[in-house]
Write a structure and sequence with these properties.
The protein has a 5-stranded mixed beta sheet. A two-stranded antiparallel ribbon has the order 1-7. It has a single domain, classed as Periplasmic binding protein-like II (D-Maltodextrin-Binding Protein, domain 2), CATH 3.40.190.10. By secondary structure, the protein is an alpha/beta fold. The two termini are 16 Å apart. The longest helix is centred in the middle third of the chain and has 9 residues. The mean pLDDT is 96. The protein is built from 3 helices and 7 strands, in the order βββαβαβαββ. This is LysR substrate-binding domain-containing protein.
């Protein structure tokens, strides 16, 4: 919507692996608080292990912010990507999967 930008192209590519992660070796309560960006939120229901019958979701601005919230002890779990889990020393407690996405490439609009 920014008139300073022009669409230059688009392509389809899978995201990095997504999963639900905790601090390495941390205990997770029966009703965990899970940080997630709003867009991939439906993955929580798909990936959360069956032993968790209830949870609370905390919305954050990115998968990195979700991982940071776990690292800092603000929440128990994060729906995050493999690069973010690795960067913040988290471990996955769920299976992982990608999201097939349409990516847009923008350039500066001609004056």
């Amino acid at each position: 919507m920014d008139t300073r930008l022009a669409l230059a192209g688009a392509f389809i590519r899978d995201t990095p692996m997504y999963g639900i992660a905790r601090r390495r070796g941390a205990a997770v309560p029966p009703r965990p608080r899970i940080a997630s960006h709003p867009a991939p939120l439906p993955l929580v229901a798909q990936l959360l292990p069956d032993r968790f019958t209830a949870h609370e979701t905390v919305k954050v601005t990115s998968t990195s912010a979700a991982a940071i919230a776990v690292r800092d002890g603000e929440v128990d779990l994060a729906l995050t990507t493999q690069p973010s889990a690795a960067a913040y020393d988290l471990e996955f407690i769920s299976r992982t999967r990608t999201i097939r996405m349409l990516w847009s490439v923008f350039t500066a609009a001609p004056a």
